[in-house]
Amino acid sequence: MKLTVYWIILLLCSSRCIVEAQSNFVSLSSSCNNTDGTKVTAASISSNGFCGVRFYSQNPFFGSSSSLYLGFAVNFAMPPSAKLRVVVPTSSAYQLNAGGTSSVVGLTTSGGDVADVALHGTGTPSLVAVEGGFEILMGTNRTATVLDSKSGFEMLITNMRNPYKNVGDGAAVSMLYANGTEIFTVSVPLIEFSSYTLTDTNVSISLSNNDAMVVSDVSVELSTSGYLPSDGKMEIHFPAGFKVQKGVTEALNQNKFAVGQAIFVSDVDEASKVVSLQVAPNLGYINTGLSALQSASFQLTRIRNPFAGTTSTFMIRTMTGDGSLIDAGNISGTFVKGGALTCKVASGSDLARQLATYDFEIRTVGTIPRDGKFVIVFPFGFYLLNPRVVASSGFGVDHLPRLETFSDRIHICLDNLNLTSDLLGNLGTFTFKVAGIVNPGAGSTNAFNIRTTFFDPTRVIDDSSVPGVSITTSVFPTRSISYSNVFSGQQNLITVNFSTVGYVPTNAIVHIGMPDGFGVSLPTASYVASSTCCDSLRCFDCNITLYRVDGQELFLRLFGTGQDNLPEGLNISFTIANVRNLWAGTKNGIDISLLLSDETSIISQAIDVDSIIILPGSFRPSLLLTFLRGSTGTILDPPAAGVCGFYRVQLNVSGTLPPRSVVEITFPPLLQVNDLDCSSPASSPASVSQVRAIRPAHMGLLSSDAGSRRVVFQILEDTWSDSWAQPNMLEFDILNLRHTAEGQLGYFSIVAYREDGTSVVEQNLSVPGRLVTANSFTVAITPSDASAGVRSQLTLSFSSPAVLPAYLLLQLQLPGSFLMDDGDLTQILSPTVGGAASSLSIQSKSVGNGTISILVQGQSGLVDGVAASSCTCSSAGQNCVRNPSTFPSGLLIVAGTQISFILSNIRNLAGGFSGLFAMVARASAQSAAISKKMDISGPILVVGQLKDAQVTLQDLGSSMTTKANVTIVIFNTFALEGSIKVVLPPGFKINAGGATSVSSPSITRLSLTYPTTAVLLSSNELAREVEVQLSSAGIQFLSSSDTVQFFLSHIQNSVARQAAGGQGGYIVSDPFLALTLLRSGELVETRNASGSQIVPNPISSFPAGAGRVFPESLVPGYRGLLFLEFSLNVDLPAGAVIELSLPSSFDLTGTQISLGAAGYREANMAYQLAISGGLTTLSVSRRSDGEIVSSGEVIRLNMSSVQSPTSTGLTGEANLRVLTSDGGVLAVGVLPPNNIGHPSEPRNVLVKNCEVDYPQTNPFCLRISFDKPLDDGGSPIVSYKVLVVDNAPVETIILPTTGQDGPFSITTRSLSKNTFFTSVQAANGLNDSSYGIEGKGNSLRIIDLPGPPRPGLLRPGSANVISASWLPPQYTGEVNPVAKLLGYKIEFDKTSSSFLQVRPNDTLVLDASQTSASSRFLST
């Protein structure tokens, strides 16, 4: 029962799945796309479907034999004996049994219950054809399970022919029960097939005869991919140039076509050059079409070849009867060669580059079109000078063919002959005579190339290579050679001159053959230094260049491109540089050839032109002579005086030296020949300048002479120098030589002779010498007392660095730290040479310059013993004798000899490093130095201590710019030409606000002060140093207790800093440092001066200064802005800290702070709050990149949201400090309190003297005016109190407001002539406690009425006008200081002299600067 129900459910499910499948097959088909070739798997079944199908051909080409892949998967068990049917449209029909019998091959599919057997073991399917397709009956060996079915079945259907076209078609794949009932059908799109591309690997085309323009057979061998149907065809498209003819061409020699099948030429399209072939069965066979061809071949007959060359591509196509492509491709062209012409060439002239007429005889092979051409290509060297055809034959016409000319060829054109037909090959011989041709160079030319062509000359028919004609050379009409130098071994400029004949191209080559004895490209590459060409009209630069050198052969190129020729008969001249004359004697002439650019073809030639005799040349040292130290053999460069050694000479022989040459070398002055033996082994005889051979290996001395400084030796070689082991290299040493003093050596002279010693071969008389240096001393200098300022002695000890004459002069330079002849004359004490007492004396000295000359008085006599010696040898290196044979000992001080002496009465002037000494040794005062040391380190002297030093500052304010008063007292001595250096402590600055200068200098000795001048030598801001030099007439040295004083300006103090412990004191700066120096900079005496206590600058409080703190409103408990205003007498730096301490009754919680000064503003400033001891301390920090606020500017700090005290009355004072960023104190101040709840101070309190008018009798009064306060303290102002004060209160005035806002003005009288101070207070209540802060007025002095003007003149002027003049009154109203007059009133009256009874007739008011006036018109 359960089984029955199960199958019922399965059948229901199957029915439902079938229904779903039918609705989903369209969407499933897209997921079963077979074009990607992916195998069917369980994943190909969609989530809501039940099958997946894939079907495609494994070969994608039209009509090709292929295997078809078919795979399907279902989600139910495949029924037993199920069928699969594949049906395609007729246009996309597959054909069974293509290339063999079609069958079904099962494939193994992973998954399922049976995964390792093809088709899950269901058995081998069978295949039958059905209408429109085929049907597969699945095997029955095993019934497939659901798992088998889901994993899928895959198979191949073999030997199926693809359709010929199928664009957009699809296959209907159905599954059927064994009884034919359909289970499902799905449409699967077919892949899009394409034609198979034929290539050179599939197709080859060849010609039976590949000559151009001949009739030939074309052989074709090809392999195809697709089946050619019975109504199909094959097309062969021939490239341009081939000629096909209908009714002529056949398809013969067919091989490897299908049994019983053949092809035939069905059509020929002559215009398009297309041959079409179709299938035709053999007798007894039916037309089945052609299966895919494999190396099938056939031959198309009687097709005419094109012109010579490789043809363009062929195209071969196979297609169905309706024109659908099956196979197609482009096949590479084939090579067509020109036929071999039979030709002859002859010339009417054989002279190189002369004008000639040429005869050409040509017999053709291929057919020439009637508009064709004969092309003649000339070999190298020909020049076409207006060529033209002057005769022709073989064409059957009377007129001549047309000629086209190019650079190296001519085209003889037949198009103008009006021939009626083509010229068939092998039918005749054609001749041409062409004039206007210039011959090439001499010798057999290369071959001509002659060919026949179409009208397009690139389409060649026949061609031939024809041997050239024989050409002979011409001679130069003129030629000559000139030489710039005739000396052996010297550089030579060789100038070549010749004239041309014939047509010489502008790129012709000049070949120069140099004879032996000349060296080309020595020392560097030869080149053309100049070149000139001249014709009958002008001369110009030929621009000839030397481009190659082969041994003695030079190749030079003319200036042009070869497109044209030189003027005939051109004179050419050029000069070759960097040619060397190698040896003396008579030389052969130079060979000249004028060639074409191939360097072979000769135009003109001349041999052995202008021979020459070369004179002896000059040595050229490869290295300048090198001096080596005799004891060690090391190079001494530069050479040094007093050192014995040898010169090594290395020479390149310019030419060639003969056997057993003699060499003479002469040395310049400052060189001693025949010196003491210093080389190993010692010479024999002793102290002779011997020769030591290096290259070549054998030499011998002939003579050496110290007086003439000459050494002569012989080269003991029996061969020429170019045959030496190292050809032409001469190297040797001359021993036992010494440079006698420093200086520039003169010239060495070297001469090479023949064996006779008189005939010069080569020479160099001016070999430059080197600069000889002096050896350096090592000197020890020791003072007997090293203290600065004391008298001492100096001991000098040194070792002779080189050979010195026993009789010599020592010159000594003392540094400025020492003074000779101090108290007594300086003397030489205890002199020794080599440890023995010697005679040294002072020859001269200059105390001011510190120089002293000391004479060492040893033995003399160098002329006899060394300087005048000589040596001669009977033969080279044999039996040599020195004269004199020896010389006395003691004539020379040998190197390493110790010398010492003492200089007495020397004053030590300075302490520290005493400076550099210098010492020079000479043979005499007029001779150059032998040894010297210009930088001998002096001893270290002990620095002295000044007796006193003080530096006093005029202003001790923090960071203030001030003056410094410098005073020093000398302890021992001081040279006034030296300087005084003042070093400021850290934190101080020089050049503050301007350049530091020195002023008010003075020198005091023995209570007398001397007029003194001072200059500032230098200042160093980084080191805080100032160096001052003083001078006073008649004073050179200051001695003990002498005092120097001067002032330094523009010194900036350090910043004040509180002392440790915070008790209000301020620290004292580090000490100042004063030093005295010599002129040379050495230190004499020094002392620290006490530092200064730097204190903060005061901040003046309001109203005398700007310093005050006040709220926006004086109403108790008001919250708003609080202002801090102040100014400094120093700059406010960036990063400064403003520290304000307020009574703690102010609430600054949450305040925002900004700063403003002189248009500059900083907002959102950082701050800190601290409350302690009834005070709130606010510390506000400026930005580190803020602007510097200049001194004197009013600085305002705005604090927002600050609550004032809630109770009325005075708040108490505030404290203000301004600090640097590192805690230094710039300024401090105490700011006045605020009176909360009471009015602020009245503003603009102004006090003036009363203005009095005559006859006012009481001028002693003040006029006081003021404006109301800005703040009334929260209640209206009811009255003002004006207080006038002398030494004590004088008058108090209560002024009710009467409801006015001001300004207010009052006058107080009956005051004495004193200075008065005035203040004004406002009250907002009726009792005295209601008065607020005072507003201070200016102080003012009461002045009297002025006295009367002094009498002047009164005179009539013009009609009705009176003029008056007067003098100012003697008393203006006050003295000390005198009161200033403001003006005069002038009245004119005719009735009363008192001016009291009547109104004046005229009144004038004048400025006090005037003392004259004229009336207006008066009545008579």
Would you give an account of this structure?
By secondary structure, the chain is mainly beta. 3% of the residues lie in helices and 46% in strands. A 7-stranded antiparallel beta sheet has the order 57-56-49-53-52-68-69, with no helix packed on it. A 6-stranded mixed beta sheet has the order 10-20-19-13-16-15, with no helix packed on it. Strands 22-32-31-25-28-27 form a 6-stranded mixed beta sheet, with no helix packed on it.
Tell me the strand order in the biggest sheet. 57-56-49-53-52-68-69
The total beta strand count reads 114
Quaternary structure of the protein: single chain
Low-confidence stretches: 1-39
CA(first)-CA(last) distance: 169 Å
User: Quick one: overall form?
Assistant: extended
- Characterize the main sheet: 7 strands, antiparallel
In round numbers, the mean pLDDT is: 86
**Radius of gyration, CA atoms, in whole angstroms:** 65 Å
Structural class: mainly beta
- The number of helices is 3
Helix residue percentage: under 10%
Residue share in β-strands:
over 45%
Can you describe this structure in just a few lines?
By secondary structure, this protein is mainly β.
Short descriptors:
mainly beta; 6-stranded mixed beta sheet; 114 strands; 3 helices; 3% helix; extended; disordered N terminus; 1420 residues; single chain
Give the secondary structure arrangement, pairings included.
Elements: H1 2-31, E1 51-57, E2 65-74, E3 83-87, E4 104-107, E5 126-130, E6 133-137, H2 146-151, E7 153-161, E8 170-176, E9 182-189, E10 196-197, E11 203-207, E12 215-222, E13 233-237, E14 251-255, E15 261-269, E16 274-281, E17 296-304, E18 309-310, E19 314-319, E20 325-331, E21 335-336, E22 339-340, E23 342-347, E24 355-363, E25 373-377, E26 383-393, E27 402-405, E28 409-413, E29 429-438, E30 443-444, E31 448-453, E32 460-466, E33 470-471, E34 479-483, E35 491-499, E36 509-513, E37 518-520, E38 527-534, E39 539-541, E40 545-550, E41 553-557, E42 571-581, E43 585-587, E44 590-595, E45 602-609, E46 612-614, E47 620-629, E48 644-652, E49 662-666, E50 671-672, E51 691-695, E52 699-705, E53 710-715, E54 729-739, E55 743-744, E56 747-753, E57 760-768, E58 771-772, E59 779-783, E60 791-799, E61 804-805, E62 807-813, E63 818-819, E64 828-833, E65 836-837, E66 840-846, E67 851-857, H3 862-867, E68 870-875, E69 878-883, E70 892-893, E71 898-908, E72 912-913, E73 916-922, E74 929-937, E75 940-941, E76 944-945, E77 948-953, ...
Parallel strand pairs: 10-20, 22-32, 76-88, 89-100
Antiparallel strand pairs: 1-2, 2-7, 3-6, 3-8, 4-7, 5-6, 8-9, 11-12, 12-17, 13-16, 13-19, 14-17, 15-16, 18-21, 19-20, 23-24, 24-29, 25-28, 25-31, 26-29, 27-28, 30-33, 31-32, 34-35, 35-42, 36-41, 36-44, 37-42, 38-39, 38-42, 40-41, 43-46, 44-45, 47-48, 48-54, 49-53, 49-56, 50-54, 51-54, 52-53, ...
